[in-house]
Write a structure and sequence with these properties.
By secondary structure, the protein is mainly α. The protein is globular, with a radius of gyration of 29 Å. Helix 2 packs across helix 3 and helix 2 packs across helix 11. The protein is built from 11 helices and no strands.
Length: about 375
């Protein structure tokens, strides 16, 4: 015989603490899902950091092509596809023409530059050893292993020739596809954002794209000016391998601060390999070109593009280079500019909210 329920006892109809119908269970599960999602997103970013960098590099290349297409559209009222084709053909013709005219000489100078730098490095190492400053071979090997290990395993494959060529090819392909019709990809990103925030997201994307186009246009102009001025000045001063040094200076100018230091060290080392006079001429060339770039060209370009503080740029380059290797170092400047633009828009939005809230206050 079973026990009957007590008379007058109320029936239990509310949800148990562990049931989904319970408000407490729903809130706790929502909080847990948010934290689990954040942890999963961070883990996914760490695992996919190299593909993400390659995609961002492709977007940067697309911004360069888009800037050229827009500039060409001011003089040629034709379709976007035809303008992009003209830009690509001009770039290929320039590269092939440059290689055809200077290919043999550049190849010879590259080989000569390597042997010259090795000889200069041996001289400096020998002098430091005589002074008792240079550490032993075992210490040098340990420092080299430590420096290479600081880059991280995630970027080790980029250092190989096959990885570098594959990365370069993927960047070109992504950039070309995005530059053909960037609006398609912009709409795709907007669909991933809640409907209430799409207008703001679209505005941020447009500003970031405009800033990247201007930044990269200024960077390309600086690369051209620095490369030509350095090559001509070194050629006038009789510095060996002036052409390859000018090309390297122009290419390294894409990375502010660090690129100028590396190119300066190269041209000074080559200059002193030919004599004290040419070494002093190389130092003078480096100082004059960098002074012109820093005090004349860079302020003019910064007014038309985005003004990034040098300390901020250098700090971003150090962190990106340590975390992501050479690809992160090259992309540190565009990443910093994009983040800076997004933060500026966020600050503007907060000011607009504060202003609208203040305008609604009753006047006492």
């Amino acid at each position: 015989m079973t026990d009957s329920p007590a008379k007058g006892a109320p029936d239990v109809t509310e949800a148990a603490p562990l049931e989904w119908r319970s408000g407490f269970a729903r809130r706790e599960l929502q909080r847990a899902s948010i934290w689990i999602g954040l942890a999963g997103a961070l883990a996914l970013v760490v695992l996919l950091v190299q593909p993400l960098l390659i995609i961002f590099a492709g977007l940067v290349f697309a911004a360069v092509l888009d800037g050229g297409v827009r500039l060409l559209g001011r003089v040629l009222p034709i379709g976007r596809g035809w303008r992009l084709l003209i830009i690509c053909l001009l770039a290929v013709a320039f590269l092939l023409g440059t290689f055809y005219l200077t290919g043999v000489e550049v190849t010879q100078q590259v080989t000569q530059l390597r042997s010259t730098l090795e000889g200069q490095a041996d001289k400096v190492t020998g002098w430091l050893n005589r002074q008792g400053i240079m550490p032993g071979a075992s210490d040098v090997s340990g420092l080299a292993r430590q420096a290479m290990g600081s880059i991280g395993r995630i970027t080790s494959w980029v250092g190989t020739a096959v990885g570098a060529l594959t990365t370069f090819f993927m960047i070109l392909v992504i950039g070309l596809f995005v530059a053909m019709d960037p609006r398609i990809y912009q709409r795709g990103l907007e669909w991933m954002v809640p409907r209430a925030n799409r207008a703001e997201f679209r505005l941020v994307l447009e500003r970031v794209g405009r800033v990247l186009r201007r930044l990269l246009a200024g960077r390309l102009l600086g690369m051209l000016v620095e490369g030509v001025l350095t090559g001509v000045a070194l050629m006038i001063g009789g510095v060996p391998m002036a052409m390859i040094l000018g090309i390297l200076t122009g290419l390294l100018a894409f990375i502010p601060n660090i690129g100028a230091f590396i190119s300066g060290a190269l041209m000074i080392a080559v200059g002193f390999s030919s004599g004290v006079d040419t070494g002093l001429w190389a130092i003078g060339t480096y100082v004059i070109v960098q002074t012109f770039d820093g005090y004349v060209l860079l302020p003019i370009v910064a007014k038309k593009t985005v003004d990034l503080p040098p300390a901020l740029t250098l700090g971003a380059q150090i962190m990106a280079g340590a975390l992501f290797g050479i690809l992160g170092l090259a992309l540190a400047d565009p990443m910093t500019a994009a983040i800076k633009t997004a933060l500026e828009r966020s600050s503007e939005r907060e000011d607009e909210r504060d202003g609208s809230a203040g305008s609604g206050d009753p006047v006492e």
